[in-house]
Design a protein that fits this description.
CATH architecture: 3-Layer(aba) Sandwich
CATH class: Alpha Beta
Subcellular location: Cytoplasm
Strand order of the largest sheet: 5-4-1-8-9-10
Organism: Pullulanibacillus pueri
Shape: globular
Oligomer: single chain
Structural class: alpha/beta
Number of strands: 13
Number of domains: 1
Distance between the termini: 27 Å
Catalytic activity: D-ribose + ATP = D-ribose 5-phosphate + ADP + H(+)
Pathway: Carbohydrate metabolism; D-ribose degradation; D-ribose 5-phosphate from beta-D-ribopyranose: step 2/2
GO molecular function: ATP binding; metal ion binding; ribokinase activity
Length: 291
């Protein structure tokens, strides 16, 4: 039976521009290519878990605009349950403006309907959360909503993974109720400025791009290496990692093995443009790992 993963988070449309070089302040440069891709950290992570083989439900909000329709259709096409995704009248869907330069990206996120995902919405999804093997959270929705979702999952003994992006200081109640926190290196540096460093460190899995990932082994941060691949677009690599990590932990894999698997999925995801386009299937991941 497929593991049940509930993703609570953002659903965006990504507006992606490839450039020869990023513009300086006040400067106009010519773009190379432009793409529209479904995105949002929550939706990306849901798609990653679903493509690998999990039974995934999404909790989130979109606007009643053209992007909202397209984003809902995309989730349905990927086999994700959308009963708890609301379409909000008079609201615009979230968008992310992404500039890609030599495979690396810079991003401006406009939350739109994502900022309307409320604590009441989480309460309505309690039965769904209770039935889950893993709940996956990020910070592109209101922090009070994230805190309540983690508390409900913890109350029902459901494992919680928090991807602390975009970074903000984590409330004590949130740190207490999540099982794993998955920052990138910049987010890790910000987390380590917190007075609760030791409490946080026990739950950390730090993604470090080409240098793999680190996790707390009981005494220190241990490194799990990643894989060298040709990079087309790093957008969404961290989301692919988180979706794969949730899947692997949900099927009972030990943490180090789950990180190895998630590293492979993250590496494969950067070989295509768009946060969701490069996410591999389970068969593709297993074939890659055998090689």
């Amino acid at each position: 039976m497929a593991p049940k993963i509930t993703v609570i988070g953002s659903i965006n449309m990504d507006l992606v521009t490839e450039v020869e070089r990023p513009p300086k302040q006040g400067e106009t440069v010519r773009g190379l290519n432009f793409y529209l891709h479904p995105g949002g950290k929550g939706a990306n992570q849901a798609v990653a878990a679903a493509k690998i083989g999990a039974d995934v439900a999404m909790v989130g909000c979109v606007g009643d605009d053209l992007f909202g329709e397209q984003l809902m259709d995309n989730l349905k096409t990927k086999g994700i349950h959308i009963d708890k995704v609301r379409t909000l009248k008079g609201k615009s869907s979230g968008v992310a403006q992404i500039t890609v330069h030599k495979g690396n990206n810079s991003i401006v996120v406009v939350p739109g309907a994502n900022r309307e995902l409320s604590v009441d919405h989480i309460q309505e999804a309690e039965a769904l959360i209770k039935e889950s093997d893993v709940v996956l959270l990020q910070l592109e929705i209101p922090i009070e909503t994230v805190v309540r979702a983690a508390a409900l999952a913890h109350q029902h003994n459901v494992k919680v993974i928090l991807n602390p992006a975009p970074f903000q200081r984590l409330p004590e109640a949130l740190v207490e109720t999540v099982d794993y926190i998955t920052p990138n290196e910049l987010e890790y540096d910000n987390l380590m400025k917190d007075a609760r460093t030791k409490e946080l460190a026990r739950k950390l899995i730090v993604t470090k791009g080409k240098r793999g990932a680190q996790y707390f082994d009981g005494e220190k941060l241990a490194t799990v290496p990643t894989y060298n691949v040709e990079v087309a677009d790093t957008t969404g690599a961290g989301d692919a990692f988180n979706g794969a990590l949730a899947y692997s932990l949900a099927i009972g894999e030990p943490l180090e093995s789950a990180i190895h698997f998630a590293n492979a999925v993250g590496a494969l995801s950067v070989k295509a443009h768009g946060a969701q386009n490069g996410i591999p299937t389970l068969e593709e991941v297993n074939r890659f790992l055998r090689r």
